[in-house]
Amino acid sequence: MKITTKLMNFFIGMTMLVIIWQVIIWTGGYEEALLPSPLNVGKAIIALIVDGTLFIHLQVSLGRFIAGYLLAVIPAIFLGMLLGRSPKIWNIIDSIVQVLRPVSPVAWSPFIVLWFGIGNMPAIAIIFIAAFYPVLLTTVAGVNKIDRSYLRIAENLEIKKVQLMYKIIFPAAFPSVVSGLHLAVGTAWVFLVAGEMVGAQSGLGYLIVDARNTLNLDYVLAGIIFIGICGFLLDRLISLFEGWVGSHWGEV
What we know:
This protein is an all-alpha fold. It has a single domain (41-248), classed as MetI-like fold, CATH 1.10.3720. The protein contains ten helices and no strands. It has helices at residues 2-28, 38-50, 53-84, 87-100, 109-116, 120-144, 148-156, 161-199, 204-213, 217-248.
């Protein structure tokens, strides 16, 4: 029932967006060369699906995203749990993180291209940078907010440190970890597209750049729509993962 309601809300929202889009074209008097109509963009979407171009670029982009995202979030969670349990060390490292975190991952692209060359690795590296810090910071914050009575009970029961991590600390910090995972999905997906616009020859970002260079703005908007839908679906997958893990740990 909840899934049906969410799907209905999604389609209602998308319908409203298309209506607003068409109204802007009518009232603003925009020419097709400046702002393609929903109808022509729909034709571009169908063309990309029929000739297989969409699936080729989508497969490449998702592969890069999954690789970079997992390479970032897994060590970020483990490191965040360890640093959260070591306040003195974290106080030193926190200053380093706060200096590096505001730097856009794209700003590192000249060095990344020099180090890794052209291909998948530059985009994966940019995704790693974009996803790592949100997960690290929210995990540390979640560990710091754990009720100390849980830890005292664990000490009384003589629970070993390894068991303490996955039986007490991770479940208690999990809501904060998931918040970081949500943030990381959004930022990593945005910077994946930016990375593909800079130094890639495939992917959804490259699809947009290639369409822009040939002045096919209907294909540009088609690529933007695919990027938005994929980002939405990835966020929903994180929500499903949250529900699954939460049920497993008895959180929901």
